[in-house]
Each structure stands twice: as structure tokens, then as C-alpha cells.
Amino acid sequence: MKPLPEEPLISVVMPVYGAEPYLAAAIKSVLDQTYRNVELLVADDASPDRSKQILDDWQDERIVRLHNTENQGYLKTCNKLLLAAKGDLVTFQDADDTAPLNRLEIQLNEFRKNPNLGLCSTNYVLTHADGSKKMERNWEIDFNRLKSTSKPNVLYCGATFMVCKEVIDKIGVYREFFNRLGAEDFDWLYRIIENYPAIHISDHLYFYRQHPSAVKVHNTNIRKYFAHDIVNYLRAERLAIGTDSLENGNRKKFDQQIERWEAPFRNDPSHLIRLESQNATNNRHYWTGLWLAVRAVIKKPLVSKNYIHFARMVYTSLRKVLFGE
Predict the structure, then answer these.
(1) Is 275 helix (H, G, I), strand (E, B) or coil?
(2) CA 119 to CA 226: how far, in whole Å?
(3) Which domains does the chain have, with CATH numbers?
(4) Number of neighbouring beta carbons within 10 Å of residue 13
(5) Helix, strand, or coil here: 93?
(6) Lowest-pLDDT choice from 25-39, 52-66, 211-225, 232-246
(7) How does pLDDT run across 265-305, given as a tens digit for each residue?
(8) CA distances from residue 227 to 178, 181, 262 in whole angstroms, order as listed
(9) What is the pTM of this model?
């Protein structure tokens, strides 16, 4: 690993879409860091609100603007910023989140203590829309253990990742196969830890804001429902033979597996609606979850699973609303 300079430049990438109410706080939490040698790379992804204007009006020479004229989605926008980063270290800041002002300094110190370190992640705090604390997320992650398992069960906040620029130069950025599917950060993380030392520290160095408008653009691509299975399949291939189907282009078995994962959706159109219903309920959108459960019954009234699912959604919603469980 190339030694860091005495005062390394830290690049912070911030893709932006529809973040007007929270964007100023996100920008300030980067520019007001105790560690000052920072560049903030921002890209408005054709937002429907004033996000681009806020970015353009902000006066600070450390801001690099790389806006999209048409919506490209998170993955492509993020990749553009990662590839443009000039820093010795690179990290993330979502446009509706914030961070404690010593975040960069603390994570930088981890790289100074271990010159071979490739990645550092941290714990984080969930906040309400107004920024008040909701709960702490305390994960204990052993990246050395994760290296040897093809089906890792790990939770983290990808925005806390800080990586050496050398990692991006060798591993690359998010793979476009995962565009608008999700799980691209899991795929990226596993490819990194297979090649570089990584550490997770217990400090809560990120404030993840939960708010009603924090919803993704509606996506009907069924592969998003088994994106993590895809990641684990590719990881198992690399552990077995040192490469995977996306790297070597030998996709026959991989594509056959994709077809097997897609089969339940093709055979039962209400399967997707049940999953959407479950996701809505998990995110505490109870009425939406119930409405989708009804839609599943209407779509396939002869499928018994739909009635079982509807009953479960009614029970879950009532329990959550009445007892807060």
C-alpha cells in the first residue's frame, strides 16, 4: 500500500436527488469537519426540487460539481464521483444525512495507525427527520471472518466506508450489473475485503436520517428481491475459483441460476405484490402494506398464499399500531 502523505486529501462523494430539505445540513457536516483537507464531490441527479440550486449557490472552493443533465440513478452517479475523486482517501456522505464533525479525523487516524488498511467502517446513529436521535446501531463486524464465508450475514452502513484511493484503482467502483437493483455496496465490500485488510470501529460517526420522503424511485425489476443472493453467488464463485461470472464473462450457469430465482415471479404474478406488501409493512407503511395485500388477493384469488399473507399483514399492523411491538 502506498504510504499516505502527512496531510492526505480526503474525497467525500455526495450523489444528490430530491434532498432539498436536508441538503444544507449534509454539506455543512462535510465542510465543517475538524480535518480540513477535504474535497466534496457533488452531483445533482436531475432532481425535481431545488437541490441543484442549493449546490450551485454554495460558496466553497472545496466543492467539485459534476451534475447530471438526465437522471442516472444512484449507482451511476456515485461511480462518476468515485472515479473523479482525487483524494488519497475516499468516503461517502448521503445528501440527507449528517456526521459528527470529527468523523473524518477519527477514520483517518485508523489509516495512519495501519498503513496497509484498505477500508474502515463505523457504527452509526439513526435519527428522526428533524435530526433528533432515534437509536444507535452497534455492530460488531469481523472482516477477517467474513473473508472465508460465502454467505455472510452482516449489517452495516455503507456510507461510513472510508477506503484508500488505491483500492478503487485496483478493485474498481460499483459494478453496473447492480444498477437499480441494490446490494452494489455489499458486492463492492466483499471484493475489497478479499484483497485488503479492513476494520470496523465502534465509534458512531454517521447520522442516518429516516424521513417519509426517503423512498426510492419505484422499481419493478424483480431482481432487486434477490440481489443479495446474486452477491453471495458471485462471492462463492470467487472463493472457489478466484473469479466470478461477471469478471470472466462465463455466464451460462449464472444466467441459469438467475432464471431459477425469477421463476416464482413468472409463475405467480401476485408473488411480487406480496413482497411489496411485506416491504411496506416492514417500513411501517401499514396502510400501504394492507392495500397491497388486498391487491395480491384480487390479482390471484385462487392462490391460498395471498389470503394467508393478508391475514398476517392485518395481524402485524394491528399489533404494531396498538402495542408498538
Answers:
(1) helix
(2) 26
(3) 10-209 (3.90.550.10), 220-267 (no CATH), 268-325 (no CATH)
(4) 27
(5) coil
(6) 211-225
(7) 999 999 999 998 998 888 778 889 999 999 999 999 999 99
(8) 8, 6, 11
(9) 0.88
